[in-house]
């Protein structure tokens, strides 16, 4: 197989040859013969290095061949980007710094190079340098598209540094140009600030941040769960219930996360019958293993193990799950015969081991799986992309 570096360098050589041919036609009358010979010498020397399997030397020759101006700047930036993707960030930084050192580069081109250099520093963890470059770029009068691109990069940089307040302020600078992903991210920045305030026992400030989160993303489940937690800590059970029930319309996959808190609130109000009605409503239009198991527990409390087992058996026919089977085995152990209990216990140990070995949450963007819920995917870095797993092994 051909080395991908050879293919990329060959494409670069062809592109440079095309540029040289184009310029030679446009500038033939004005270019001294010695200069043209020098350019061609570097170009053909680069081809010779390439064919001799000396890619580094070939790259240096091609770089010398390319003049630096507005027409060739994209080629220089593309080559530096290739170095960065290969992990040769030092060479990318050197290229960008050499470009910035040229006095004949226009201010617009300088800004493009500064943004590229900021990405170099970001990729090797020099976040402060990257931040300073982007802030300097944003001080200049920029076209809308460039301003949005620079702000978006700066926001992601603040996110890496966990400077949530700065990230939120930068997001606000986007104004009406915010897209859906930026709004979703901003909601979580506000939630992060809310968590910090709540840990400092400043519930008023925490609630203000959570309201900001919902103003960015009305479907932010995280904000609703945190609001419910604060209301519960203040024994405002009805307010907590109202916020928790809102989760069904925000994202039905997260109803299972709200159920333990809902049960506690309804118990505090001595209104478990309302809780049961809510569960039955959910079962009819947003069924899940957690809802079925919650109803099974209520039937068990009211009517005993046999009735709960019969109810669960019927529901598992429509929506089988490992969680449900495990609970059904527990119920049979409650009232089963002594001879059956040993077999049931063996089966229970097997299904329990299977359940414990399976992740409960998965990112619908990249497939990352985990046992604990995370609002920020550690793999693809998206917010709100991890949900409870559905189906036999989940909900």
Could you describe the 3D structure shown?
With 395 residues, the protein is an all-alpha fold. The protein is 73% helix and 2% strand. It contains 20 helices and 3 strands. Strands 2-1-3 form a 3-stranded antiparallel sheet, with no helix packed on it. Strand 1 (361-363) and strand 2 (369-370) form a beta hairpin. Helix 4 packs antiparallel against helix 5 (89-100) and helix 9 (164-174) runs antiparallel to helix 10 (180-199). The two termini are 46 Å apart. The relative contact order is 0.04.
Gist?
With 395 residues, this protein is mostly helical. 73% of the residues lie in helices and 2% in strands.
- Indicate the radius of gyration in whole angstroms: 31 Å
| N- and C-termini, Cα separation | 46 Å
As a percent range, the share of strand residues is: under 5%
pLDDT averaged residue by residue:
82
Discrete helix count = 20
SSE-based structural type: mainly alpha
The major beta sheet can be summarized as:
3 strands, antiparallel
Multimeric state of these chains?
Answer: single chain
């Amino acid at each position: 197989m051909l080395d991908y570096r050879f293919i990329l360098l060959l494409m670069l050589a062809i592109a440079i040859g095309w540029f040289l041919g184009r310029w030679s036609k446009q500038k033939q009358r004005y270019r001294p013969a010695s200069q043209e010979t020098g350019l061609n010498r570097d170009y053909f020397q680069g081809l010779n290095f390439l064919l001799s399997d000396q890619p580094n030397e070939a790259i240096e020759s091609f770089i010398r061949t390319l003049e630096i101006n507005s027409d060739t700047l994209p080629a220089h930036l593309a080559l530096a980007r290739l170095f960065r993707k290969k992990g040769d960030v030092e060479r990318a930084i050197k290229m960008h710094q050499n470009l910035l050192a040229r006095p004949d580069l226009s201010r617009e081109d300088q800004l493009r190079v500064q943004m590229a250099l900021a990405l170099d520093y970001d990729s090797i963890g020099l976040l402060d340098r990257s931040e300073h470059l982007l802030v300097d770029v944003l001080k200049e009068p920029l076209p809308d598209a460039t301003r949005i691109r620079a702000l978006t990069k700066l926001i992601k940089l603040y996110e890496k540094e966990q400077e949530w307040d700065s990230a939120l302020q930068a997001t606000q600078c986007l104004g009406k140009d915010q897209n859906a992903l930026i709004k979703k991210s901003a909601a979580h920045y506000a939630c992060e600030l809310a968590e910090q305030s709540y840990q400092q026992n400043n519930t008023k400030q925490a609630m203000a941040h959570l309201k900001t989160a919902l103003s960015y993303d009305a479907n932010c489940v995280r904000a609703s769960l945190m609001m419910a937690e604060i209301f519960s800590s203040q024994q405002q059970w009805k307010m907590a219930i109202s916020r928790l029930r809102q989760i069904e319309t925000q994202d039905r996959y997260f109803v299972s996360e709200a159920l333990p808190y809902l049960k506690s609130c309804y118990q505090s109000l001595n209104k478990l019958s309302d809780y049961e009605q809510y569960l039955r409503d959910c079962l009819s239009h947003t069924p899940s293993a957690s809802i079925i198991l919650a109803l099974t527990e209520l039937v068990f409390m009211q009517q005993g193990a046999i009735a709960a087992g019969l109810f669960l058996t019927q529901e598992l026919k429509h929506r089988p799950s490992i969680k449900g089977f495990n609970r059904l085995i527990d119920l049979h152990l409650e009232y089963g015969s002594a001879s059956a209990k040993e077999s049931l216990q063996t089966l229970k140990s097997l299904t329990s081991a299977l359940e414990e070995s399976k992740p409960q949450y998965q990112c619908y963007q990249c497939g990352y799986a985990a046992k604990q819920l995370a609002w920020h995917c550690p793999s693809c870095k998206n917010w709100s992309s991890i949900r409870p797993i559905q189906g036999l092994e989940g909900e």
